[in-house]
Queue: 3 jobs
Job 1
Amino acid sequence: MPGTLWVVSETGADGHLARITTEVATLARGLGEAAGREVVGVVVAPQSAGAAGAVAELAAYLPRVLSIEAPAAETSPAAAIVAAAVAGLVVGDATACVFIGASPDGRDTAGFLSVMLGMGVLANATGVTWDGGPVVEKGVFGGRLITTSSFTDGHGIVTVRLGSVVAEPAPTPGRVEVAALPDPGTVTGAGQALPSPSPVAILDRVTEAGGAVQIEEAKVIVAGGRGVGSPDGFRVVEELAAELGGAVAASRAAVDAGWIPYARQVGQTGKIVKPVLYVALGISGAVQHKVGMQGAQNIVAVNTDSDAPIAEFADVFVVGNLFEFVPALIAELRARRA
């Protein structure tokens, strides 16, 4: 019997399904139809996190969803707990494939699963087709080249980048089943012992300030770079973002300078975003930053340097002082709403 295609879900702090999971589920469902394989979603979360909502949401995209109640991540990272549960489902399925969003948590989960199951990982997929197994497209060298890769034995773990697929619910909702958390060390029907993650101690927790819009989910992003000049300079970035109903982001230069938290960084070593509108203030547009935001539908850039690289791919490029242009833009937006 062909192996199952597993979709590992990710939930937000509010218990709802993360956008990236809806995209991964849509992708896996299409692959399952092409390959003639069963596609199953897995939600692993404490009931206190409101997992029921995420389970119902995932069932709108997949024909079958397993809900597994797990302990709260007090002594082990959540990724380790999720990986242990998924490994218990996948172990013994020699041709299974696992699909996970390429978010920070997703990458951690994929790493745990790879070690626990001895499966290879193809990371940061921007597209996946099926030819005896998943064939993964991904950008390399800062997105300048596109490669295609596959597993030598036709199965493994694939992490998928946000925005690679347009999420589309299935014609009819799938069925939901409650499953027990597998007990590591027990032996499955395939004669294999369930793997267990190595113990990892949580030494500290850092919580991002509440109320901030996650840049991966934002339709509008206003980002500041080296040209913003200082932490105080980000006030004008924040003001424009508030006026447009968007999120604040930054280039690596601004993050490295300590002007804004890393969680706001867009780029090759930050987050990949695909908003409807991306406003770049004081950002030169080096290839490392371009990788993270080039998928935006509309790009507006403001820079004093007319030769800045971002001019080559911005839809609108303004040569000028952002501290003069942005206040004038905000005033005009407010006047039009009056």
Job 2
Amino acid sequence: MIQRSTRGWSRPYVPSEGVIAAWLRVYDNAIEHWDLYELAEKLVDLDHQFQLWRFSHMKTVERIIAYKRGTGGTSGVAYLAKALERRFFPELWTVRTSM
């Protein structure tokens, strides 16, 4: 059964210890859970590639407008630099520390 989130979307996401534990079981026995292991690795690849794009975008913006205000009233480069700290799948990155 799918459980709906009770978190308000205006609040920041907090990684789930239960999700971390589940992914750790997958990584601990990758052969038995091969499909999930491959999925996890593809998700990490996607996250990594998006981070590379974010970095490239930030450096391009820095080169073109330097530290002027960004589009939509953002702080420009500072906003993009802060975005580099964000991950799509934080549990998959956290589980690597636990292995």
Job 3
Amino acid sequence: MNERTELFTGTQEVREQHRFDSKKLEAYMEEHVEGFKGPLKVEEFKGGQSNPTYRLEANGVRYVLRRKPPGVLLKSAHAVDREYKVISGLQNTKVPVPKTYALCEDDDVIGTWFYIMECVEGRVVWDPMMPGVDNDHRTAVYDHMNEVLAELHMVDYEAVGLGDFGRPGNYFVRQISRWTKQYQLSETQSIPEMDNLIKWLPDNIPAGDETSIVHGDYRLDNMVLHPTEPRILAILDWELSTLGHPLGDLTYQCMQWRLPTTDMLTGLQGVDRKAIGIPTEEEYIADYCRRTGRAEIENWDFYMAYNMFRLAGIVQGIAGRVKDGTASSKEAEKMGERAPILAKMGWDVVKRTGG
């Protein structure tokens, strides 16, 4: 088990700053969750950098609770109500998601908004190299990830009640603006490469536009895999989901092929992927294009530089929450230190294109 897996796997006693009155929650669930019967046991999941997540158990049934963290929060961040809405909307599609039970927008229950969903039992794999399984298993998991992402992007969002889940069009304009503001509000150090990306990206957005539901954080460790079979049972962590450009989602996942293989940004850089049954970036893109009916993808480097900028903004936000005392993981400080690495990687992509 690598360091990241050990740090993020399983549950622990609820952290002091995330504690609440479990009796109030129990009373709420008795009223709003069908079939619920106490008494209630509460533990906190170790994983996650943003919204505190808890495993609830009562009368032999397990549930998951996701909440906004306590404290002063950035505008539009930690939108648990949006998570609840998109997971609920995807219930009867080919995209595997947990069953949802209740959304609470009353701060008086546990101190912040929260929602309750099914606890899907299976594997959460934190290492993209998937140690401990054979090559065929690894290949099949990556292929199913590709299939599910394609299915998500082909969902008719209007038909599932998500037509108002975001503003169609100009996705990259809005996202670059949003993450620039979030980054600047959370800035704890000067990162010249980030400043360069903030200037370059708005002037180089590719022509043309598309709209689909996008997950926003689509990667292996945000999925629950079947306990033994190479398939996904549930996609988790929809906090960053919206209506947006599907290629932003695809390049975000493919960014993992380029991230370092050590420290808190565990990726596949330098790994002999063929030797362990993981597709190359090019093969993964080709499979996605086949499934979504695309001939090819132009301007790949823009999308990749954008996503490195975006992830740098996200981890800078984590660093800001460490400073403010609202970070939800003990390892958040380490993660927040990775913003300069990501910004440099993004700017290197731009420089290689002659930008």
